[in-house]
Write a structure and sequence with these properties.
The protein has six helices and five strands; from the N terminus they run H-H-E-H-E-E-H-H-E-E-H. The protein has 145 residues and is of the alpha+beta class. Strands 1, 2, 3, 4 and 5 form a five-stranded antiparallel sheet that branches. A hairpin with a 6-residue loop joins strand 2 and strand 3. Helix 1 packs across helix 2 and helix 3 runs antiparallel to helix 5. It starts with a helix and ends in an 8-residue tail after the last helix.
Length: 145
């Protein structure tokens, strides 16, 4: 599972920097093919006060990196920043289960992020998303071949 997390993150990073992937890791596709109803999918919608933006981004990058590296149940934490408004942050979050999500909330690195950024966050919305077509999740990276 740890290898799959790294491969999924690497594939997401490849897409995020706009490079053309020549080979997509088979394990990434395998991980997506295992998508099931117990997984938790969220898109964190965060607005940061402008004066804290750089500091917030440092905290967010650290917690996302550590979570993916250290937590087997964290499938994906993929942070994004709005091109129109840099204070608008979105994080695609995919957890193996509700138990994995609850464990994530208790980690030292998440608590450091949460406590360290409370005064930086103007608003936070954390809707749980329901995939419309879980079968499509299995095909996401095949197009990058």
């Amino acid at each position: 599972m740890k290898k799959i997390k790294y491969l999924l993150l690497a594939a997401l990073m490849t897409i995020s920097v706009g490079t053309q992937a020549q080979n997509i890791f088979p394990a990434t596709i395998t991980a997506l093919s295992e998508f099931n109803d117990s997984m938790i999918v969220r898109i964190a919608e965060i607005e940061v006060y402008p004066q804290y933006l750089a500091e917030y981004l440092a905290y967010a990058n650290e917690v996302d990196r550590l979570s993916v590296e250290l937590e087997p149940g964290v499938i994906c934490l993929f942070p994004m920043q709005s091109a129109e408004d840099s204070t608008q942050i979105r994080i695609l979050e995919i957890y193996a289960s509700d138990e994995a999500y609850q464990q994530h909330l208790k980690t030292d690195h998440f608590q450091k992020y949460k406590q360290g950024t409370l005064h930086m966050v103007k608003s936070l919305n954390l809707p749980t998303m329901q995939p419309l077509d879980p079968e499509t999740m299995k095909q996401i990276f095949k197009k990058q071949r």
